[in-house]
Amino acid sequence: MTSQFSDQLVAALASGAANSIVEAGKAALANNADPLSIPDDISDERLTHFLNGVSSLSPFLGRLMRRSPQCLERVLSAGSDDGFSCLQPKPLMNETVDDAKVRLRSVKADMALAIALADLGGVWQLDEVVSALSNFADKAVEAALAAAWHNVTSLRGFQPDADGWPSAPTGITLIAMGKMGAGELNYSSDIDLVAFYDPEALPVGEESRVDAKAAAVKLVQVTVDILHQQTEHGYVFRTDLRLRPNPGATPVAVSLSAAEVYYEVYGQNWERAAYIKARPCAGDQNLGATFMEMIQPFVWRRTLDFGAVADIHAIKKQIHAEKGNPDLSAVGGNIKLGPGGIREIEFFAQTQQLLLGGRNHALRTPRTLEALAAFATFEHIETETAEVLADAYQFLRNLEHRLQMREDAQTQTMPTDDDGLRVITALMGYEEQALFLTDVNAHLRFVHDA
Predict the structure, then answer these.
(1) How many CB atoms lie within 10 A of CB 196?
(2) pLDDT tens for each residue of 252-263
(3) 239 — phi, psi (to 5°)?
(4) Which residues pair with 334 in a beta bridge?
(5) Does residue 316 contact residue 327 with C-beta atoms inside 8 Å?
(6) Phi and psi at residue 193, in whole multiples of 5°?
(7) Which band of pLDDT confidence, cut at 50, 70 and 90, is reported for residue 324?
(8) How sure is the predictor about 169, in pLDDT bands with cuts at 50, 70 and 90?
(9) Which residues contact 249 (CB under 8 A, 6 or more apart)?
(10) For residues 331 and 440, what is the distance between their CA atoms, to the nearest angstrom?
(11) Given CA atoms 282, 284, 286, 288 in this order, what sign does their dihedral have?
(12) Which of 72, 208, 323, 369 is deepest in the core (most CB within 10 A)?
């Protein structure tokens, strides 16, 4: 039987998790901060202090808990063992676009709070956090596409085929890229999607004045609008479609045949790297599987010419073109794009996969930690190097989440002010700021020197 999330938090806090946040809650209440409205069935003092501590350290999470006590109650009474499946959105039949926008933003608030509390409270480790974030993104995209699918017949001149408009999307697939595709989404991430369609499978009738291309484009536009638009209730996901073939010259949905020609003739090595993490996330599953099978020979090559090898090695040099703190200082540094940051580890993994994965299927995992472990298993890097890189990756990803939790902002930049450093130190579970900053610098330096 799945226990309530509140019970799981109580157990984790009793074992010593999140002491720094509990102490922040005590201090906030001692300083006459406005206490949270805690559900009546919560009597554990440490949990009460923890929730008030989260509220005091993260204005965004504090607003979620104060604006809707029902949100906090739903989260605490849910179960986390299955990734809060009871809170996850589901595709609904005949849902209007406006209704989908309101519903998905409400679910986003519940999931954002649930995942943050599970993370900060020590109930979940990094893998569970990123998996839950990615699973929510999948469910949200699926629900948004379903709403678009049921509303696209409002297109002027639209005419379904003789069998009518199917209840589920067919002839169009959405491919998740980047961290979403790998199941490694961060706390306040954009999502990268690429849309492909089969003009023979989209149910557009011969009498229609709207062709398959126009229908596919409209489906993608409405789906992105549901997810991306900033409304009075916020947004669900900032959505980026620019990883599609030749984005400056192609529509937001690309036909499967056009994609096949593009990747055979014009595909770049950076696109090969991007598709290491790709997977279908919504729409026609058969079409998604067809595309993934089609793209495999482009991504994984058994032999590489000199130009391709040089191009792959050049990918890593892009890191140093990004803004970062050249002296590897944790204070004010960018822990993703700066020297020694998350991007260096990810680029290292992807470039090694492109060089070696054509001959070794075991290296083709989309997940960074699994790739590092595989490199060590097949003796491409030392086991100790793989382990220390993995430790640095997990530390920096946890830090990234806490930077983003403060205001639900897509940031990877460390604060420079005393109050900001105090907050991040506490959210990371440290009692001493100097020790925290020493550890940040140690991870950055190892990655940069590896």
Answers:
(1) 29
(2) 999 999 999 999
(3) -120, 130
(4) 413
(5) no
(6) -125, 145
(7) very low
(8) very high
(9) none
(10) 9
(11) negative
(12) 72
Place of tokens 């990918």: 315
Helix (H), strand (E), coil (C) string for the chain: CCCCHHHHHHHHHHCCCCHHHHHHHHHHHHCCCCCCCCCCCCCCHHHHHHHHHHHHHCHHHHHHHHHCHHHHHHHHHCCCCCCCHHHCCCCCCCCCHHHHHHHHHHHHHHHHHHHHHHHHCCCCCHHHHHHHHHHHHHHHHHHHHHHHHHHHHHCCCCCECCCCCCCCCCCEEEEEEHHHHHCCCCCCCCEEEEEEECCCCCCECCCCCCCHHHHHHHHHHHHHHHHHCCECCECCCCEECCCCCCCCCCCCEEEHHHHHHHHHHCCCHHHHHHHCCCEEEEECHHHHHHHHHHHHHHHCCCCCCHHHHHHHHHHHHHHHHCCCCCCCCCCCCECCCCCCCHHHHHHHHHHHHHHHCCCCHHHCCCCHHHHHHHHHHCCCCCHHHHHHHHHHHHHHHHHHHHHHHCCCCCCCECCCCHHHHHHHHHHCCCCCHHHHHHHHHHHHHHHHHC
The strand pairing partners of 160, in sequence order, are 204
Q: How many angstroms separate the CA atoms of 15 and 158, rounded?
A: 61
What phi, psi does 281 have (nearest 5°)? -125, -15
How many other CB atoms are found less than 10 A from the CB of residue 191?
Answer: 27
Give Cα separations from 26 to 40, 65, 146, 307, 407 (angstroms).
19, 17, 46, 60, 22
Copy the structure tokens of residue 121: 């409270």
d(CA 119, CA 57): 14
pLDDT score of 437: 97
Whole-angstrom Cα distance, residue 76 to residue 97?
30
Residue 175 phi/psi, 5-degree rounding, is -105, 125
Q: Residue 407 and residue 22: Cα distance in Å, rounded? A: 20
In degrees and rounded to multiples of 5, residue 96 shows phi and psi of: -75, 160
